[in-house]
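[SOLVED] Need 3D model of a two-part complex

Original post:
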Amino acid sequence: MKPNFEPFNDIPGTTIFTIEKAREGFHLNQFCMSLRTEENRKRFLADGPAYLAEWPMTDEQKQAVIDRDFQKMLDLGGNVYFLSKIFASEGMSYVQAVSTMTDMSAEEYQAMMVAGGRNIEGWRSKKERGEA
Amino acid sequence: MAKIVAGITTSHVPAVGHAVDAGKEKEPYWAPMFEGYEFSKQWVKDNPADVDIIVYNDHASYFGMEIMPTFAMGIADNYAICDEGYGRRPIPDVEGAPELSTHIAASLITDDFDMTILNVLEVDHGLTVPMSLMYGTPEKWPTKVIPLPVNVVMNPQPSGERCLSLGKAIKRAVESFDGDVKVRIWGTGGMSHQIQGARAGLINLPWDIQFMDDLINQPEVLQYKPHLEYMIEAGSEGVELIMWLIMRGALGDKVNEVYRFNHVPASNTSVGHLILTPKED
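Solution:
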């Protein structure tokens, strides 16, 4: 069956980690995997650019890591479960890190979650929102 | 003959594991969620089993991108606990069930399910958080475990039909094992949640509840729900719910609903939990 990733592009504010994105982000995600040991986390936090220089990632991917720009990392083939190793190494929770990809502060985001989460109305389709 | 005696589904939020490890179950934020599992903790004591087959997904904890198996099965004696970036959770290793798992894996492959075989595996919160929810903080886990990792991270994921069929094949595999072994099957992950992008934080409780109803009453219809609908309605990570279909397939045509619980939120996630038993004709 011919794969069809096209419909994913209409979901607002969402990057689906397809096999194609996985290829693009392979080295970025493998760098993230290396942060599963305390020794590597220490080295990365001590000197991020030096640690990143050991990985055959693109300059854009490396800069996104240095900037902790998680949305940019997603755009460049990162997957959030891999990227979580970056924010975990800094002791940041999923809620704190995820909120940085929204237009809310961590406190506002947490308040939205406690109040029942983001309501889906208006968030089903870019076409519906006039974004496409 | 070995027998599947119950099915359990539950979300597997990492923050829940951290809350258990830090003894925060009674804090106001967490108490309403943990109270929802009190019934279940007692129920699994009153209705013991020998082996738990736990369907879960790894979250870039053991599997990197070198190898991404669609369906895999652990057949080891023992599974260590991953360091997911925060340090290893202070919980015991998980004991395997090598005789039963080798039998099931061989049966599934013979039945045309191309399982990846894992003689070495470290398990992450996808498997250990459900165990903490059901068993608390024991020094040794009360059951042996067969881990069944499913790729729900990289699209394409296995179809709903394939997941339900795998569950049915697991039932056949268990029932063809010689030995009086009581087995439970767990489907973990979900419910609605999205942890990336500008749409992060999405929760769709009405959809979650309908999913539970359909899982119980009409899995043969539910299996055809396209992944795109999970992504739109339950968030990009809501597609984990296809793992619940594997659990459901292993329980047979009709089930008894023993227990149901929903709670919003745990961290970024809508928590859902079911205990089901096969309904004998």
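Edit: Chain A has a mean pLDDT of 96.
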